[in-house]
Amino acid sequence: MAESSSIRRSEPLIRVGIMAAASVDFELKGSFRSGNKLVASGEYTVSSQELIAGKIVYEPQNSQSTFCLKKVTIGIGFHWEQAENQEFEGALILQYENGLVRAVNAVPLENYLKSVISSEMSAMNDLNLLNAHAVVSRSWLLAQLQNRQAVDVPSFTQTDSEIKKWYDREDHVSFDVCADDHCQRYQGITKVISENALQAVENTRGVVLVYEDKICDARFSKCCGGMSEDFENVWQPVHVPYLVAVKDIDSSSGEVFCNTSDPEILRQVLIDFDQSTVNFYRWRVKYTQNQLSEIIARKSGIDFGEIIDLQPIERGKSGRINRLKIIGTKRELIVGKELEIRKWLSDSHLYSSAFEVEKVIDDTTTVPHQFILHGSGWGHGVGMCQIGAAVMSRKGYSFEAILNHYFTGAKLEKIY
User: Fold this and answer.
1) Can you give the pTM of this predicted structure?
2) N or C: which end of the chain has fewer CB within 10 A?
């Protein structure tokens, strides 16, 4: 593993946006300082009216001092959305944001990763899987900081016939990353951080994926469904050589890595609330006409009338639809990209946009009375497939081999 001089740097401090509310309840545990004043341990509440003139920073005075944020919402917009109390190391920053209090945690990158590795999947995972995930998560975050000044194509366009939208970290301007699935799950020290998770971060400290002397914008999703997806079909229309479609197949056996029902392997990736999801490699969703037309109208804000057809106009290599024509009795429109399609067709999110449409029509009308979506995979499918990587790890693949499989042409380099 080479050390890179061209992108060498010191470990950065990461600002993680945890929550935003009209007021934030929190507890300080240990010794903190705010400005020139020491702040006693105890429970506090800060409202947005107190912050209009600025922000409040609580700096821990030793490594044993932590703070607890109350009623943090996790899984925002997904079927597992819930609130929980979460405890954090590092500094607490409370700042005014659009009439709300934004709670931000400032924490060194490697400490942040210890939590991410334990929040995104089980901290009891095989070490090679945790090593791989530590490198991917570190690379992704540093790439976001590296590319912050990049000029991006607008993420939302609309015409009379088409709406196109994708979601990336560009929404965050007052902090580096959020703590939820929009970026990477980060739950402080709330989750059990095992020796394996600590060892994985230490084993790979400062190690990132690099392509042509730039840190890779490494991505991952739960289950690719048998083939990963090209970056440009999910986000900006830019070709990224190391984020291209890869068949998730064991060349020695021909078996698909992420096609597993082994409960021990799945427990490594599907922690807590994720484990309520059992069908992800292949899945099926049924809608009555009334259900589908109501969901689309509510989620899109557009009255299509009764839904006559859902027509895939463009698919990526994994089969994920990135342009879908919705035809109704009142109007028709093309929607993209993949996450916007998933949002429009579900109360939360469809598992993926890789689906085929089955229409059920009786002899009395041309309007279907039922739609059945036959789908595959869970998530956008770009980069590392977490379940596939878990299977590879269990089969004895090294973390280097796992990363080489999912990130075409990328190399490992230690930058601090």
Assistant:
1) 0.89
2) N
